[in-house]
Design brief:
nine-stranded mixed β-sheet, 6 helices, alpha/beta, about 250 residues
Length: about 250
């Protein structure tokens, strides 16, 4: 794994090595390893989309002269490192921790469970902030619910703050989605789902995409009792970034 610049902290470099070692260990055991994140939120409508699209001469697309919209799309991605496959859950309102974990749950139910029928553990690599941030109580509470539902022991390794571009989902999935839909107005949710699902690469990347119709609520407070229910064990090295949540049996 290529490391950040020498200006990066020693602990940050060590975290990269820790993530790499954990991922290799899981893959050798045949256990799933996924990289997750939310792609940049997009306005939905007939608006200009950066990039160039090949069109017949004198047949350029006509788009709105503004980019104000009451509809947005939040694509939450799950990239399977072993299979080189992506799963994207397109949300229609808020990018919350409940939405993030529900996207992982949908991946597991629709894809992961069939591909890893003997799995007992799952490793998630995620950014340090956002809806899957290491400081977010709701993220950990929702992961506990997922662990209980799936029976999986869920390990999480967060990238240090400011290093999200090294998360594999960024250059192995999201960059290819952006290339695939460049220049095409994202006029509606059906178009977004179709364009994401059509994303492929010469190296065999396959992507499955679905529209999440659930409405998520911002600002949900996690109670003390709910926090107590989280069966979380911190790892010895930077336990705030690296931890495992086991099912409550």
């Amino acid at each position: 794994m290529k490391l950040p610049s020498p200006k990066f902290s020693a602990d940050g470099n060590a975290q990269f090595e820790f993530i790499n070692k954990r991922a290799i260990g899981f893959l050798k055991k045949g256990e799933p390893v996924i990289s997750v994140d939310t792609k940049k939120k997009e306005n939905v409508g007939n608006f200009k989309n950066p990039g160039q699209e090949y069109r017949p001469k004198k047949n350029a697309r006509r788009v709105e002269g503004h980019d104000f919209s009451d509809k947005t799309a939040a694509p939450y991605g799950v990239y399977d490192m072993a299979k080189n496959e992506g799963f994207v859950n397109v949300g229609q309102n808020y990018d919350t921790s409940e939405f993030a974990v529900n996207s992982i749950r949908k991946w597991w139910r629709l894809v992961g469970r069939a591909q890893y029928p003997e799995a007992k553990e799952l490793l998630i690599t995620a950014d340090g902030g956002g809806s899957n941030g290491y400081r977010c109580k709701q993220w950990k509470y929702e992961l506990q619910r997922f662990a209980n539902d799936s029976g999986l022991s869920v390990s999480v390794c967060h990238f240090p703050p400011g290093t999200s571009k090294w998360n594999k989902i960024e250059h192995r999935l999201f960059s290819h989605i952006s290339l695939n839909w460049r220049g095409v107005p994202l006029v509606d949710y059906e178009t977004i789902v179709k364009l994401i699902g059509e994303t492929k690469t010469a190296k065999g990347l396959k992507v499955r995409c679905r529209l999440d119709k659930k409405r998520y609520q911002k600002g949900i407070e996690i109670t003390d009792d709910e926090l107590e229910s989280i069966h979380l064990k911190k790892h010895n090295f930077h336990g705030e970034w690296n931890y495992t949540i086991k099912p409550n049996m």
